[in-house]
Fold these 4 entries.
Entry 1:
Amino acid sequence: MLAYHTHRIKGEPPMSKTRDNLPEVTVQSTAETSALLRELVAHLRQNRTQLRQEWARRITEAKLLTAMSQEEIFAEATSVYDNYVEALETGTFEALQAYARNLSERIIPRGVETHEVVGIVLLLRDVLARSLFAKYQHDFGLLNRILDAYEPAANRIANTVAVGFVQERERTIRQQQEAIRELSTPVLQVRERLLILPIIGVIDPQRARQLTEQLLRGIRTNRAKVVVIDITGVAAMDSNVANVLVQTVEASRLLGATVIVTGLSPEIAQTLVTIGVDLAKMNTVGDLQGGIEEAERLLGYKVVPFGESIQQA
């Protein structure tokens, strides 16, 4: 067993030791921590106006939340401050989490970035710590105990606000991406029972799956019998995406719709051949106009020249 030796400077009081000959560490009790937090909360409530103003001023000086006016910054600083103090007082974070989500919903569309939100929370922590130092500078023992009680709660509060903002930002980004994808793959009803799906740009596996889902929903909703998928605007696709295209054609057929693929490039045609697609089972037409004409023929429509239709009338 290893032996630990301690050396004491002459005149220094003997160091208390544990059974293992190690210095004894004083741990703050839960009751003491609660009492110190109550004293801290009382101080923050008593100095609420001054500390809010100081925090708002520091936010402006640091050039954070620049997308917001001074009045808006002070209003939000007031709400964050009150939620902050409540979390310290109650030890619960549900209200703070709800407010952080609500705040994020309002400020993210205005271009507020993650580092700004983290920055203002850290500034508040600094403002409060400076206030505590000024109050307890003549009693460093009490100051250290209060900071020991405050710091874990402050860290959790900062983490709660930051995580809430990041989660809301990620949700907003996902919604925007979904909207962009839907706009980039519109299912258009040309006439009764006839849909067109023009595809432009790069098709990755995720977009390919979404394309299939949108088309199948469109077929069911519109009771479509013929679908024209135009891929003139697609420069290339890998074998995985080509397989999804083939599966889309088959799934559409199961729903009772015939699919006509138009605008095949030589590269995409080669990909389909390479993966072993039986092109005899895929109805292809050179261009979109020809695809629409073929779809109308399948639906029983007859295109009559305008002059001829007038004479018949």
Note: The mean pLDDT is 81.
Entry 2:
Amino acid sequence: MLSDGSLDGFMTKFSLDPLDLAALLSSRVCHDVISPVGAIVNGLEVLEEEKDAEMRGHALALIKSSAAEASARLQFCRLAFGAAGSKGAAIDTGDAEHVTRQLLADERTRLEWSVPRVLMSKNKVKLLLNLCLIADATIPRGGVISVSSTGDEDRIAFRIEARGTNARLAANIPALLDGAPEDGAIDARSIQIYYAGLVARASGLAVEVAASPELVTITAKPADRRADRPADEAADIGV
């Protein structure tokens, strides 16, 4: 479970310099888009050099699919990591569903989305998207990701289930979500999970993870608050 508090005025177990946070999140975004962008470049090179119609057709198909993949990843990252407006702004959960479906648009993974379409505080939507990203990583061979919510804005709770062959929860995930990396360091591969923990605390939610054969469950529920002000007003997390 996550520790109490948020970035602004609350205690956390591990302190990461804001510049390092921004740099690591930027590295994560670049990592996510460099592969499809590289494929686009390769496809363009083939078009410049290849005269065979069939090969040019394959190159165009590669460029089209890679461009769609890069766009999907960037749109997801814009909501999951970005500021998305001023403090206190809201995000349409329908937009969150759309970018998640685009991100998981392959034959290996099916998304079951049961979150009502409403305007929700941006940090809570960003948390939901980051938890979906964590869930997707637990089923590398694909499967089904089920996303649901209960309660209203003030007492919202999320539940994400990832079902798939060889579903696996990495051992370092609970500590990273709790803001206490086991080795006392954060890198570009672990920053997204650590960031999800920061957003959870800023939203006043506590995250728990559990794993069983072929099933990983992630829940986010209202945590006890020690501040006089709502948690969503305590921090505005974005890059």
Note: The chain has six helices and seven strands.
Entry 3:
Amino acid sequence: MKKALILIFILFLFPMVSYANENMVKGNKQYKKNNFDKAIEYYEKAKATDTDNAMINYNLANAYYSKGEYDKAMENYKVVLNNTNDNVLKSATLYNMGNTAYRNQDRDLALEYYKNCLKINSSDMAAKHNIEFLQQEQQQNKDKNKDNKNDENKDNKQQDNKNKDNQDNKDKQNQDKDKKNNQQDKNDNREQNKDNQKDQDKKNNEQQNKDNKKDEKKQNPNQHLLDYFDKQDKQNLDNAKDGGTVQKIGRSGKSW
């Protein structure tokens, strides 16, 4: 396993050159004292009289970088690259631009600047180190993204399985419910049929009784008279026992 690296933020500040103006000299002194606001003030005055001076823009860019104003630093570093043929100055500028891009959260651009620096100065160990650091960081991010994607796929698969199980359970519950309802319907129908059968049997019995009575009347149309005489005979018998008068009535219904 590779050892974790730390990005090296070396900032190259060249000593002032022989043709530097007075404001350039004052700016360098303030820069060495970490008075960056004052250094910028002097460098800006120097730049006003010599706009395309690569060294003035380089030192001004370094001052802005040290202050944390990375956009202004990058702007002045680009002026340096457009106004110098000095490979040493170009190499230092590209390295510092790599630092600036990294501070601005643009790691791809930072890697590009470090590689360009190394093309000019292959012995720049700080640039080599930072290239290795960024490449290692990129690989770690790829591995992390891959792991996250695998975890996401795993979670999605688990969720799909869970959803499938839930749907299967729901389907089974619905099937059981349907079966239960069907069975209940069958039971209800069976009870209804029983009740209907009872009603029908009752009606049939009632009708049968009516029919039987009709048949009896047809067989003996004078049955009601016989019943009357039987009743009268019973009454006479009861009166005789009590010493009463017996009333004789013939079968024709008249008294004798």
Note: The domain at 22-123 is CATH 1.25.40.10 (Serine Threonine Protein Phosphatase 5, Tetratricopeptide repeat).
Entry 4:
Amino acid sequence: MNQRIMQRLIPLLCLLAGVSAACATAQTTPIKSLPVYDQCAALNAGTAADDAVAKAIAALKSPDAKSRAQAARQLAAACDSRGVDPLIDLLKDPDTSVRVAAVEALGKLGDPNSVQLMIDTVGEQNSQVRMAMISAFASFKTFLARNAIANHIANPSGADISDEADMRVRCAAILTACQLKDVQHSRKSILFLYEFLQSKHDNIRKLAEQTMLELKNTRNAASEMAGILSQSNDPMLRRWAALWIGKIGLTDARGALAEAVATDSDSTVKQLAAESLKQLPAAK
């Protein structure tokens, strides 16, 4: 059966199974790291009572959700500090698309004072809004914002994650953290996948496996997986890293595998590292 037919059947199968049609997207959309925004170089501080910014702020109170979302996008492009507080207020809008537009606008404006206020609403938001927050937080050059990706979005905090939409947000956050030049949260984010791979829920394990394989396309995965293999005191983590470096195809971690084969104190780590070395393309 070709892919086009399958894509048409999935929504019907979801509905027949008593699941919302949104599961079609979850079944077909690959998980990727999310882009960052080009933030405003500086925010203006306009004062006119009837300029475009003032009109856009007024439009945020329109009874029409599309008008409110459009006004948020206009404020994002205006680079005017007057838009920040009204957009923060918009994070509590009853319409999901409006909240997404507000998050995106705040990420593009780049006022660092908005980060904590956005963090304060993460737990109240649905998966679409939380997904938008990943790009927004990643666009800020601050520890607080980057930390939010790992610890307020990706981190399960001991919860038993079973919802697929929720898991997709967490996986996107992990991949995005591993794509940033700032590597402070890359390894911790990857280690969340170690937990997810042990989930009792088949769908969560499958998404974790997909995300592990997608790590190959991120900036920091090879160095972080190599670091886990060479630096962790937990032999189970070293075994996991040795196995997955080969499965993912992280050629830049070849040196860590060779070192593990030669010096690791755990025989299983040595064996898995040797097997992973065989899976990697021959060194040029």
Note: Residues 1-8, 10-15, 17-26 have pLDDT under 50 and may be disordered.
